[in-house]
């Protein structure tokens, strides 16, 4: 017999079904709550709300665990590639050689952007942030590929998946080229990895991609590939729930990711470190400042809604950071500031009692800086990595029998009925 929870309300008591996930996460099914009682749940920020069941990613925030389709991220970084992990996240299994080759061929059909999208890039003001270009570029795919926009048509969904994956690499790289006034150049070797192609498309075909640097970029892409129902993925799902096409839904994901509390934090961290360096602020003083609510600032790259322990992605990126620095012989003074901030925060009861630890964005920007990638490209690189996750969730929701249009309720607290006379 399935277990139930008893909800005692002033008017009546009802029973609500309980269920657990495959890793033991517990849920109360309130689907019939409003219908049976007239009550809704109040949950700002959705901290206790699970709008769907999912098979893509498992995240245990208390123990710092992150797995895609059952595989731990550190194992995937060690033994796999971003291309294979994308397939894993999208389709549920690691691909065979034949599946990889077949998918690569499908994606390659879309690896050159329609000229109109590049013209669109060129018409934007010079200082346009690359996240804006990415958002309009993804939206514009619906105009160039109208025959891939029916979410109910399985073949179109498969093709739209390949189209989004193939288009994203030039959309990201050329956003950089446009802002730097560089020519749009496609990689000479069509078989190169995303990590290598990205660097070639950004810095030109003559740029020699060091194998260790390529591996680091590959790991960073893997580490961003999915993170269950985060803000941008939820945005993709919410927009997709109205049966908006895949490209429109992904553009929503880019816009949600841009905010400094989400993916925009990687840019915000480096801007914070630069400000600390330029103003010569003592890291301990900075840490005391962010504790004051009226300071208007936070320690960027610290804290997470779900992780109440070290973000496992941050642990890997911190190691990567050391590797890149010693390989490239770079000595970035921002790294020392970041280390001092981390030390000061982790020794401070304000941070420890609230379980605020470095997150994925705390050290990633320092790695990108070592690779000469400008700060405004950090969040687009997050988006490049997150793309398979967004698509996997959109597809999963699209074939979920319980999917309904996302439409939360409110508790109205405005003026009661009144008249103009
Ligand atoms: N610096 C100072 N105080 C903080 C910070 C921080 N970075 N993060 C949380 N707090 C405090 C917050 O003021 C609150 O204190 P109190 O209980 O006294 O009111 C408490 O910790 C809980 O914070 P919250 O804002 O209720 O937590 P949340 O789950 O709503 O927010 C967060 C999570 C990531 C938005 C937040 O920790 C934050 O703003 N961090 C800085 C931005 C950042 O690094 N974002 C990247 C997140 S990881 C990448 C991704 O997946 O998006």
Which features characterize this protein?
mainly alpha, 3-stranded antiparallel sheet, binds carboxymethyl coenzyme *A, Cytochrome p450-Terp, domain 2, globular, Rubrerythrin, domain 2, Citrate Synthase, domain 1, 18 helices, about 425 residues
Element layout with pairings:
Elements: E1 4-8, E2 13-20, E3 26-28, H1 33-37, E4 57-60, E5 65-68, E6 71-72, H2 73-79, H3 82-91, H4 97-108, H5 115-123, H6 130-144, H7 154-180, H8 194-203, H9 211-223, H10 231-241, H11 246-257, H12 265-278, H13 283-291, H14 312-328, H15 333-346, H16 349-353, H17 361-370, H18 378-398
Antiparallel strand pairs: 1-2, 2-3, 4-5, 5-6
The structure holds carboxymethyl coenzyme *A.
Carboxymethyl coenzyme *A binds next to loops.
Can you put this structure into words, describing what you see?
- The protein has 421 residues and is mainly alpha-helical.
- It folds into 3 domains: 47 residues, Rubrerythrin, domain 2, CATH 2.20.28; 187 residues, Citrate Synthase, domain 1; 106 residues, Cytochrome p450-Terp, domain 2, CATH 1.10.230.
- The chain is 52% helix and 6% strand.
- The strands form 2 sheets. A 3-stranded antiparallel beta sheet has the order 1-2-3. Strands 4-5-6 form a 3-stranded antiparallel beta sheet.
- A hairpin with a 5-residue loop joins β2 and β3.
- α3 packs parallel to α18 and α7 runs parallel beside α8.
- The chain is globular.
- The protein starts with a strand and ends in a 23-residue tail after the last helix.
- The mean pLDDT is 96.
- The site of carboxymethyl coenzyme *A has 21 residues, from loops.
